Amino acid sequence: MIFTPQDEEVDTTSEEFYKVKKELENAAIQIAYKIKDIEEDAKEALLDLEYEVGKYIVDPHIDSLLERYGDFEKVRKYLDDTKNDILEYVYLFYMDEEDLKEKYDKEHFTKYKVNLLVDNGLDRCGAPVVVEINPSPANLFGKAEYEYYNGTVKTDFTKLLPGAVHKANGGYLVLYVDQLLRYNLSWDILKKTIQQGEITLDTQTAIKPEKIPVNIKVVLIGNNYMYNLLYNYDPEFNKYFKIFVDFDNEMKKNDYNETRLANFIASYCNSNNLNHFTYEGVEQVVRYSTRITGNREKLSTKFNKIVEILVEGDAYSKIRGSKYVDKEDVLKAIKERRERFSKIEKKMDESIENGFTLISTNGSKVGVINGLSVLNMGEYSFGRPCRITVTTAPGSSGIVNIEREVEMSGPIHSKGVLILNGFLLENLAQEFPLSLNANICFEQNYGGVDGDSASGAELYAMLSSLSGVPIKQNIGATGSINQKGDIQVVGGVTEKVEGFYYACKKKV
């Protein structure tokens, strides 16, 4: 091949071109590296600047909190960790919300929130007193709420909720025993909490909060049956609950307690925006309190029943347009309350008035007496007379309790009849065997009978039948008798006397 001078010039030019190109490429690469280094330096300088700016903003707040809570090691560590974390991710605070959602976790800032479980701030005076009426494990010891996110269940520390034990920490927790024992787990965890002095919030999730020291006084409210049940069947009960207080449902009637009752009435009226009671109104409430006890020397401590009269008396006074609750309002409240509960009583009154129930209130009869009984209808009790008849004859059967023979007699009533038999044996069968057939019956009794208050009346009717001496029918008798012939204290005497009085009025 033959090369011309022109071809040699072209090859030389191409070689120089590629040489220059390579030099330019190398220079460009060097410039790119330098730009990258400059960008890295600029980015680092910017981060340092953001760090210093963030530190300038954050330090005063953290330092202020450290001055107040620096004595608490865990709080101090938390504040230091929070400060370092904010400064480490300070650049996120400068990003737009949309960019933050696209590039990072949209809930990144959740970790800086504070979940205040209990606030015992300046508004609280004294130790907290918490009454929990539904002591489930969650309500007592807290729980974690959940939310659905992308088909899964998730939670975080901000969704932890306190329980009654957290709220009562440092104070008193009041629980009703019958409600507490509905939740076996609550009772067991409560004993464990008292024993260890720590609250464990069981979230059943990956979140495991630290145990919280607890110092509380637990007050259990219940009746004697519940106390005896726990005392006898839970060996740990007496270990954790050492103080037993048995409150009476009545108190002595004196000037001091009557004044305290009047103060309670005034306090309740103030707290519930009720009209205040006049002197006569308070006096009538005191009488009602005495009536509840069935003892002229006592006042009732069943304040829930007294409150019912206060509220209803207030309503009647406002209907009258009065600013005060007077005696007539209290009496109307008592009367109307009785009317609401007296359906059975009215039916029995009609039966006596129409002659369907045989009750004699005049004349005299042999072996027949009006016994006095009390019927309890839950919130309401009332007295009614019942005809007791006794027939006697020579024989060896002794006293026959007809109610017992047909399984309508309660154990206490059956005991009363046996005691009556013992009295007769001691007084009439010391020299000769008692030869007697005596049948005792509660006439027109279709619902059973119990209690020993009729044993006295049964004795009178039996002696009347044996002797042939009639008993006046305008007399009602009540009271149990012992084997020595002593008449014992009568229960429900107020209702019994009123019941016989109303029956006599119906028969007039």
Written overview of the protein:
This protein is α/β, with parallel strands linked by helices and 508 residues long. Helix content is 50%, strand content 15%. The chain contains 18 helices and 20 strands. The protein has helices at 5-69, 73-88, 97-103, 137-141, 164-168, 177-180, 184-196, 224-233, 237-240, 255-271, 279-293, 303-320, 327-341, 343-353, 402-405, 411-428, 455-467, 493-507, and strands at residues 129-132, 143-144, 147-149, 152-154, 160-161, 172-176, 198-199, 212-213, 217-221, 250-252, 276-277, 298-300, 324-325, 364-365, 368-377, 380-393, 398-401, 437-442, 471-472, 476-477. The strands form eight sheets. A five-stranded mixed β-sheet has the order 17-18-16-15-20. It has a three-stranded parallel β-sheet with strand order 1-6-9. A two-stranded antiparallel ribbon has the order 2-5. β15 (368-377) and β16 form a beta hairpin. It is elongated, with a radius of gyration of 44 Å. The model has no long low-confidence stretch (mean pLDDT 85).
